[in-house]
Amino acid sequence: MMTYTESYHTLKSIFSTSQKDKTYNGTEIHEFPFISSSCGILPGNPDHFCEKHHQHLSTSFSFYNDVGTIRDDVHIKDIEVKENQAFNYNIIRPAGEGKCRKVIFLFHGFNEKDWTKYLPWAYALCSGTQSAVVLFPIAFHMQRAPKYWSSKREMFRLSEERRKRFPHIIHSTLSNVAISMRLHSMPQRFIWSGLQTYYDMIRFIEECRQGRHPDIDLNFEFNIFAYSIGGFLAQILKLTNFKGYFEDTKVCLFCGGAAFNRLSPVSKFILDSEANVALYSFLVEHFDKMLDQDHLLHHYIRDDHPEGRVFYAMLDYRRSRSFREELLKKHEKWFYAISLRKDEVVPSFEIINTLQGAYRDIRIRVDEVDFDRKYLHENPFPVNVAYSGQVDEDFALVFDKACRFLA
Length: 407
Prior knowledge:
It is a single chain. By secondary structure, this protein is an alpha/beta fold. The protein has a single domain (4-406), classed as Alpha/Beta hydrolase fold, catalytic domain (Rossmann fold, 3-Layer(aba) Sandwich). Helix content is 39%, strand content 16%. It has helices spanning 4-15, 82-85, 119-129, 152-165, 177-185, 189-209, 230-240, 273-285, 287-293, 295-302, 306-315, 321-330, 348-356, 388-406, and strands at residues 22-24, 27-35, 48-50, 55-57, 86-94, 100-107, 132-135, 216-227, 251-254, 335-340, 365-369. The protein has a nine-stranded mixed sheet with strand order 1-2-5-7-6-8-9-10-11, sandwiched between helices. Strands 3-4 form a two-stranded antiparallel ribbon. Strand 1 (22-24) and strand 2 (27-35) form a beta hairpin. Helix 9 (287-293) packs across helix 10. The longest helix is centred in the middle third of the chain and has 21 residues, at 189-209. The two termini are 20 Å apart.
């Protein structure tokens, strides 16, 4: 059996090839197209229409650039990002079988640009549970973002300009400058991209239920493995439980599960400090006032959209705590979390605070793990290191736990 390190390098090589049919050690990797039908809620759409309420909604979006110059390739209106509307996603599935009856959705972390890190994760989940693993990208991440936002040369130049404009900025890098600029200038993008992904997932499930997916049986059952901010999406899906679709869905959270305002996302890989301040100010400190001013946002958060109400409850640990904890208690047996003791982005104790409740009366199991080596939230299983054998063992430990829960 291949180790994590070996599977990482092999899968990376296979995944990067242009061949249509990819196979690896008893699994197949397939690619499928998806067109988002929910992009109409995004900033830049002059005519917003809520299908649920058959209502046209006014908008007060204003676009501006936080570095003082025109950068349309970064500050492009959300509705105009074509990559976010039509894209391909991948499935890693057991080889040689018919349509899959068991599925796991794998949700990635914040500001991710490619799936390389997650390929061994998906393979471990697939082989350990005999489930097809769907690698579905969050809006404006992975293949849903323009390649320009990943251009090292252009992003380095923008980061240099941003540091000149904000001389006290912390962790402005070529890796996070595009997403930091966009969220700094319009923090509500966090809400809209999250809701778009939520609606995309609902549509994906309904298409499968209608028998329209070539790899997934219409009577399929599904679970979720969610990492970091992907756990935020998983919790909203599970706790909203649209049409009962998620009633029997297990949710395994890895390095995730805490309320938004208990995260520390300032990192050279995630967000810079200026974007984080703007995001926290908008979504936590002044969100209720912002809802009063933004009729469109108010509609989706306040007016008979259960997903918006759950989203709201997940933003601030104190806000709507009773509502959030009541839902978590209702679904407690369907959640399981694995946290890392030295995680500084999503602290282990904050995951426990959110999932087990203020009075620790929610019986959601949280396994706190600590590795006998250096590690980061953003890269818990590094490759090409001297202690690769230890990394292999740590990876096996975490994913054995995940597979036992999700099987």
